[in-house]
Design brief:
The chain is of the alpha+beta class. The chain has a domain at 23-129: Jelly Rolls (Sandwich), CATH 2.60.120. Helices cover 18% and strands 40% of the residues. The protein has helices spanning 7-22, 134-146; strands at residues 30-38, 44-53, 62-63, 66-81, 87-89, 94-97, 103-120, 127-128. Strand 4 (66-81) and strand 5 (87-89) form a beta hairpin. The model is unreliable at 5-23 and 151-162 (pLDDT under 50).
Amino acid sequence: MTMRLNPITLAAALVTSAVLAGSAQQPTVTRTTLQQFDMSIAGREAVTARAEIPATGTTGRHTQPGEEISYLLEGTATLDVEGAPSRTLKPGDVFFIPAGKVHNATASAKAIIIANYIVEKGKPLASPVASLSLATRSMLKLQRSTGTTIYNPSRIEPTGSS
């Protein structure tokens, strides 16, 4: 007897597993401000911070309201910046992220970054980027692989977490 899996049943199983996997506690990234001061450029401030990303931790996709100039002090990390290839960082590496570019860093070993920001004064230093939920991404992947329309993708709502 051959068992055929209904695409809707398979989708429901994937959503359930994605929700359960997504509910696992992620390692916490910490950012400590070392200095912060007004600049001679009107409406701008400079911030120097120490960011610590635990092994397997990720900053999550985000933007800054200005430029980031950073130095990897310790550990290893993969840096993904919108429009650029992924880059593996090792101690001593420096990087620049233009204002408003979506980016994410993921540590393979605990990473410590000294970050300098030239940003718009009064705005949050980092703003998370809305992304599709893990369950929605799983459903889209299933839909692409099976060619079955499970739901209308134009009705997908972005969420604040991935």
